[in-house]
Amino acid sequence: MATRSLNERARINGTTVRLRYLETSVGNSAVDRLMGGGLPLSGIYLVDEHNSRTYASVLARYFLAEVLMVACFNVNSLLDHIVFILVEIPSFSGVIHKHSLLIASPSRDPSEVLSKLPQKVEEKVDERSSESSSIGDVEPMKIAWRYASVPKVDSSIKGQRLNKQYDLTKTMDRALIDCCDISKYPSDETSASYSQLWNQLIQILSCQKYRPLNALNGDSNSSSSERNLLRIVIEGERIILEQIHVTTLDFGSPMWSDSEMELKFMARLRTLINDYYVVVMLTVNSNSIDPQRRDRIYSYCDAAFVMETIDDPKLTASNFGDSFDGYFRIVKLPSISSIGCNCPESSDLTFELHRRRFDIKILHLPPALDDDSSVDGIDKKSSSRLPCQSMLDF
User: Fold this and answer.
1) Distance in angstroms (rounded) separating the CA atoms of residues 103 and 109
2) Which of 75, 89, 312, 391 stands 20 to 30 A from 328 (CA)?
3) Residue ranges of region Disordered (predicted)?
């Protein structure tokens, strides 16, 4: 009979150990840093995007790209298994991860999502900081000479692993995706339902490689190297927990035959993944969801963020001196491995989607205005006067 230490942890590609718990990256280094390093295994990561359907899908692409994590690819060394809710993709040689993927979408082909996965690029030093430092060497500060030795403020939130970046303008090679064994739910002939999706999840997770080493009903003779991670992305908008296109403003999509069961499905999913090597990402648009129901969704998650988009980003440049696409609100951070959660540098955050990357920055107060200046067309001097300048008549 094989013996095993209770403290023994599985060695899974794409995971790190923090406070005796395994965690994995969500693909975006800024979000990883806000979480304290990454998403703990068996964790649920939620992005609630208001007034838009653009930016949460970018974070979902980061999350899925982390499954492949291709630095240099070799088609002969592919992942083991992939399934789609959006659930997870394996890796290749030079490729660090070898996870699994499950895709469940009642409205679109999973290949549409996989075809837009960004490609990893090696970037040891941040280009923006190197450019700014080179400019500073050529033209040193002359007026504020006492601050010449003070480094410039960089509002961008960066992770510790600067060499792991994804270029949104480059997509992963189609040959890598075509060689993967992708399972889809539902099939073309049947309608989607939460109950059937639940049954398929149970079937997928019955595989021994997703269970912890010390599971009571696990195989004590299996090795740590046989363990793998299942990455699940449940996209909103067209998938579970989101509005259906622009035609339906309901929490459960009518394309699911039992759309009233979404909260029950979430509760069961939250309990199920506690016993497996699984991470889940949800994208939601809660504009039309009842606040109490929305809070229940948040309560099932380990990390939750709200993205409040701005109608006219140009106004932010005039009011704050910097342009951004919206505010990035922290609702909940993981606290699985400790009593308290990670304390980020600031909770006043903004996000901006560039051509090649998605940035999260700290929102700084605008500079002090002169007495002559005006804000939004209102004269500061006139607005500061008392409404009545004459003597009061009692």
Assistant:
1) 9
2) 89
3) 373-394
